[in-house]
From TrEMBL:
Transmembrane annotation, as ranges: none
Signal peptide: none
Xref: PANTHER family: STRUCTURAL MAINTENANCE OF CHROMOSOMES 5,6 SMC5, SMC6, STRUCTURAL MAINTENANCE OF CHROMOSOMES PROTEIN 6
Family stated for the protein in its record: Belongs to the SMC family. SMC6 subfamily.
InterPro entries: P-loop_NTPase
GO MF term (any one): damaged DNA binding
Organism field: Triticum turgidum subsp. durum (Durum wheat)
UniProt keyword Hydrolase present: no
Coiled coil: 20-54, 292-340, 366-393, 422-478
Protein's UniProt name: Structural maintenance of chromosomes protein
One GO location term (cellular component): nucleus
Localization per Swiss-Prot or TrEMBL: Chromosome; Nucleus
GO BP field: double-strand break repair via homologous recombination
Keywords: ATP-binding, Chromosome, Coiled coil, DNA damage, DNA recombination, DNA repair, Nucleotide-binding, Nucleus
Amino acid sequence: MNGRLKQMQAQLRDFQMQHMQFTQAEASQIEEDMQNIQRDIDYLDSNVTRLREEEKEFSEELSGIQKSISDIAKEIAESDKRILQLKSHMDGLQQRQSNTVTAFGGQKVLKLLQLIESNHGRFKSPPIGPIGAHLQLASESWSVAVDCACGGLLDAFIVSCHKDLQVLRECAGRVYYNNLRIIVYDFTRQRLVIPDGSLPTTEHPTVLSVIQSENHTVLNVLVDQGHAERQVLVRDYEVGKSVAFDHRMRNIKEVYTSDGFRMFSRGSVQTILPPNKRPRPERWCSSPAEKIAELKNEADGIQRTISEKNAQRRKLVNDRSNLEQKIANLKRKREPEERHLMNKKVQLEDAKRATAENNRHAAVDTTELEEDIKEEKNNIEQRELSLQKTNVKLSAALREVNDRRMAFKTFMDSVNEERLHFSSANDELDLVKRKIDAAQQEKTHYEGVMTTKVLPDIKTAEAEYADLQQRRQEYFKKASIICSESDMEALSHVAGSTPEQLSAKINRLKQRFDQESRRFYAESIDDLRALHDKKERKILRKQQLYAGFRVKLNSCQKALDLRWKKFQRNAGLLKRQLTWLFNEHLGKKGISGFINVDYKSKILSVELTMPQDASRDTVRDTRGLSGGERSFSTLCFTLALHGMTEAPFRAMDEFDVFMDAVSRKISLDTLVDFAVAQGSQWVFITPHDISMVKPGDRVKKQQMAAPRG
């Protein structure tokens, strides 16, 4: 301590000498230099600020021009898309000029109709279709609404039986019309009469009321398959909402507006679907030529607009180039000024630092020396406290040694008890051996009884059986003289009956024969036999059909049993895999667990064994864990499920809530390693610190700024 004190006194003398060497002239010179530097800084700062403001104005103007160029490019792209739609619409209308049927299936439907005509002999009844070609609208204003309501039903064909369906499907395949919708319907059925109580209670028209057709089958199909009588048509959007949702009218399935909106309600859920973004060409247009001319004029107008927009874009591109050149010139002027300004600021800071250093040396006191002395005393006290803690740890270690000695003694006592149990087990083994010897003696005794008493009786019974068998053969020969064996086989159903019973049965059969003869006296025996043979053939066919169904049913049952076994095996393997993955993640924190899945009760339970449970037998339900342990176990369970599923991207939010620092670090490392190893895209969101996660090629960190109060 004396050496330390002498060193501090020498330092105090050095500071006093430095204070004496510092003169007033040097301080004045430094102050003058600082004022000159400050004037240079103010001048440079004003120049840099002016250049930045000019550059900012040009940048804002440049961003406005770029936005205008982007908007014009979007408008041009939308116009090009609209022109393509118009051209497609015009192509469809031009096809309709040659044949109106092409509106409902294109060129494929023409080829299909030609093929149907060439194969008309294979159909029981000629197919009807496409349905849209057999319809006429009362007003073209409803064309879009009816097209949206009926949809693909307008392209469908109608046949009368399943055989015609197969033939038509074959014809459609030959012309590559693979997605053709075919409806089987009874052509002989009259037009359906819909009661007034089944129609919507509204003044607005329905799809069925605005379409006309000379074929009743077409209208019946639209009612049965498309519910045309319950689809209401309205003029505009607001009226449609009122009809569909406000009044809650009966027998209304859907409401369609004239521009293609679809509205319906199912229970308390109200749904509004917008028109199709790619509408079909108008399939009920009465004057395609006028519509084509109108569409062509619209396309020409759009093309002129595109030319004007391209001219505007070229002008804006030139303006953008000029502004970029001006911004580059300003930047070249600003950067040297900024570097000069930074140098001046550094010089000013150095001068201020030198002045502050001199002032600090000039105002020296002994406060620091006193603080150093106090610090030395504090160090001595801390060392004494550390020595006391070491003594406490030593006493705890001695107590632990004594506890382990007591545990070893308890273990030796348990070993001695096991030795006593082993000796008692040997006594029980000797007793079992004695019982086995006694059972062997009883077996020998009963075998002797079997030889001396039971076997002679069996041999006597066998001799009596042989005698009876011989007597039976003699009686059989005598009976065969009276009645042949073939007659007896024909009467096998009366075996065991007495003569009185046989006589009574013969009388009943005679009476029944007389009754049947009186009932069917007009029919001959040959007719009855023919009827009998016909019934037998029908029964045989049914039996064969039943046998075929039975074979198919057995095959289905075998397939079902095999699938059920595979399903049970897969369920067991998945449960086992889930437990393994769960334990793999839990092991990073020394925890083990088990997942119990009861498929019958539809219950999944998680049980954990914590590392502090020395017996390793204490199983805890997750509801009995702390918040951090529950969060970590839930995270491990989620990762186990993610490991068994496939998805292109996944996300987890606030996965580390209620965790301590150690659990949070283990969780973050586990999540990052798992996500990198799996290969899919992951998004983790957490309000906690993520500085411990190291960014890499496949790991990106983004941190949002804290909210301002």
